[in-house]
Amino acid sequence: MTWIWSNLDLIWDRTFDHLILSVPSIILSFVIALPFGALAHRYRTSRAVILTTVGLLYAIPSLPLFIVLPFIVGTSIRSPLNLIIALTLYGVALMVRVVADGLGSVDRDVQQSATAVGFSGWTSFWQVELPLAGPVLLAGLRVVAVSTVSLATVGAVIGAQSLGSLFTDGFQRGIQAEIIAGTLATVLLALVLDAILVLIGRLLMPWTRRSAIGVRVRPDTVAQEVTA
Amino acid sequence: MNFVTETVAWLIDPANWVGAGGIPTRLVQHLLFTLVTLVLAAVIAVPIGFLIGHTGRGRGLAVATSGAFRAIPTLGLLTLVALWVGIGLNAPYVALTVLAIPPILAGAYTGFEAIDRKIIDAARAVGMSEAQIVLKVELPLGLPLLIGGLRSATLQVVATATLAAYVADFGLGRYLFEGLRIRDYGEMLGGSILVILLAIVLEGVFALAQKLVVPRGVTAGLPTDIRDGSSRSRPAMESTIKEGTSHVRNE
Fold first, then answer.
1. Which of residues 72-111 of B touch A (CB under 8 A)?
2. Which of A141, A185, B214, B228 is least surrounded by CB atoms within 10 angstroms?
3. What are the chain B neighbours of A168 within 8 Å (beta carbons)?
């Protein structure tokens, strides 16, 4: 405990580093996954190709990806940008499937009604399908957020600073309190980001407020993640 | 493109394919470690998961616990356990078994839960005992999801076993850390490529296994394309197959 109180500045600095890595990755994942997920939902061929690709991408272990990526895209191995790109790739890999599932969960009758009352494909996507897929997307994004925050710590072993640096430093110097503090801070940060996402979800989707978010999500999407 | 030639040179260098630090030895270490960890985790998680899935009790607790575990950074757990039990293989075994339990547990009970209740009722109606229901109905029908859980756990363990080389001298991860330390691009990239290949091969094996274990009677009843049918009434087994493919990375 004394270690934590006397090193609050350090913990705060590493938390800030951690936010710089994780928040852009989470936002980028969502933005990039939307068109790919929509494409995967739209056609049978694109679905097979895209979902297989993201499945394989997600299978790549993080540490090797952090090391290989700089040689492919030309970033420096220790730079935050390298980690942000890698974390975004994982986020996209997870989110594309969620977007495809979310759009697939929209009732066919509703889509046809939208077409019948004159929505074009484009406006129907933004004004009907996307909002209705919202709870599923939110559930997926929450998983992405928690997973990204947790994964970002791995960068510490290659020298990219984050809350994970407290693990490597604590391990090398034999300070248990430092590792425990890092773990708690990481979990806390994940919970805070998760809570922010839930809040944003309530603001954007007021109709889900009455039923707990996720309860209406179909079991074959990410329902088991939601309740977690 | 200098690093490409360096990587190829490292990968084909015969000196890297023999001895205690050679690629075959490290690969076997990596695989054995993964296997032992999975078996340990499965021995703990599968019976508990079946119990939760069959009785429907304790689900909330299981979901909450696995959710909490997901947020715990693996590297933190790994280094902390390493400080407690000392440098070596014990720390990774403990840490990774703990981390492999939640996905297997989830695979086991969601596999049971995804089964249409009518099927269970029918099994009971024709006079099956509880043990028969579990072994002859729930187990085969829930198997694809259980394999899905094992698949997530395997990917997690293979990836984290690479990280475990940070606290113990074993596995393919050693090449990554050594290459980073002495700035040998060939070694760090070669090692990374080996780990990536291993993970992708295992992913493929599990994807195949997951398809193969679906009982024939179930696949016969499935719509060929999931978007063909109405979105409202779908057979329960379809969700079983899809659900098993989602897992979460946090190593």
1. 72-80, 82-84, 106, 110
2. B228
3. 75, 79, 166
